[in-house]
Amino acid sequence: MQIDHTGIAVRDLDEAITFYTTVLQGELVDRYTNTAVGVETEIAVIHVGEDVIELLLPTSPTSPIARFMKARGKGVHHIAYRVDDLEQSIDALKRDGITFLEDTLRTTAKGRRLIYMDPRHSGGIIVELCDYPKIKQ
Predict the structure, then answer these.
(1) pLDDT (tens digit, 9 = 90+) per residue, 79-96?
(2) Number of folded domains in the chain?
(3) From which domain of life does this come (predicted)?
């Protein structure tokens, strides 16, 4: 398991992109809008050295990012860990008593499969597990 990316909720996507690309000398590698119901987020993917940052701007007041920001404000939303096989990892962790937010299980338009762990296991931090089955690891 390794860190795949860090998701950061922002109020101004262009301002955040400028900070990460200018001050931290990152590279904007992708920008897109996820219009899936229940997700509704504009996303900017920034590479900073070996690390990946996903800047997340809610595009609907009912998106999970909007709800997160209403409760906690802007900032780190989640840390994603890449696993070799998502189903195997979920099954193994469930055997150890870990629960998941089952409604978050999905495959993105970019081919990443993901699910969020119940944050009660991680001190309130949202942990995403993900894999990329169509991309050689």
Answers:
(1) 999 999 999 999 999 999
(2) 1
(3) Bacteria
Taking residues 2-18, what's their average pLDDT? 97
The Cα 51–Cα 62 span in angstroms is 29
* Proportion of the chain above pLDDT 90, given as a percent: 83
> How far apart, in Å, are the Cα atoms of 68 and each of 41, 77, 119?
12, 7, 13
pTM for the model: 0.89
> Is 137 part of a structural domain of the chain?
no
Q: Which of 75, 71, 80 is nearest to 11 (CA)?
A: 75
CATH number (domain holding residue 46): 3.10.180.10
In a domain, 10, yes or no: yes
Instruction: Please tell me the predicted confidence (pLDDT) of residue 8.
Output: 97
Spatial CB neighbours of 137, under 8 Å, sequence gap ≥ 6: 82, 84, 131
